[in-house]
Amino acid sequence: MANSNEAKRFGRLLTLKQAAAQLGVSWWTLGRWARQGRFRTVRLGSRRLVPESELSRLVESNMTEASAPAELRMV
Hints:
Layout: H1 4-10, E1 13-15, H2 16-23, H3 27-35, E2 42-44, E3 47-51, H4 52-61
Antiparallel strand pairs: 1-3, 2-3
Helix pairs in contact: 2-3
């Protein structure tokens, strides 16, 4: 069993389907992203699990600044 420090570091482990539902994408897409190395997963036997911390990191790494078209910008 993992100690409490490891549990805090990774957070809850989610299945690909659970993680995909949280992100609003299909589990096929999330599986493809995992194979491409966009985020880390945990393999337990034949199961691939996603730490909640990796979901947060994935979202944060893909955030962009919103910008309005030039004609709508305030001067």
